[in-house]
Amino acid sequence: MSRLTLKVWHDRPRLSPVFWFCTVFVYFVAALAISTLLSPAVDEVLLRQNAPEIIAIKLNYIRLPAICVGLVVFPFLLWQSRRYALNFIGFFTAGAAVMYIDDHLVLYEIIQYPELPIIQLTLFMQPLAIMALAWMTFELHFRSKNGY
Question: Other C-beta atoms within 10 Å of 11: how many?
């Protein structure tokens, strides 16, 4: 093995299998949300001219770039700077929790999600993804304190 390969292998994050399962789950839910927003069924909803549904979909179109950037940036931060990865995942978790609370407590009278099965599945998995993000944040925090 080359010296570079040994360095990369040695510097890899030492995290639990639960952390990696949560990471895969969060990426799965994010990919499901992205594919839902880009599906033809959503275009049909937009053509129906139902204002609360259109507002919900447009709100999620605004959130889509942040989700995509987060999915791309996090792995690089995890391998390069654990401190920045912890700050980033903490910020990302807080943002996801705020969006969930905002949707369900503040905007519940204004927005209405369509009754499409894929959208309902994504909405069902959203709190589970937030819990997985919280686990990832806690584990990164405690592992970084112990020098993982």
Answer: 11
Is residue 99 predicted with pLDDT exceeding 50?
Answer: yes
Say which amino acid occupies 56: A
- In b/e form, how buried is each residue of 51-62, taking b as 16+ CB within 10 angstroms? eebbebbebbee
SS3 track for 47-94: HCCCHHHHHHHHHHHHHHHHHHHHHHHHHHHHHHCHHHHHHHHHHHHH
CB crowding 109-146: b at 16 or more within 10 Å, else e: eebebbebeebeebeebbeebbebbbbbbebbeebeee
Q: pTM to 2 decimals? A: 0.82
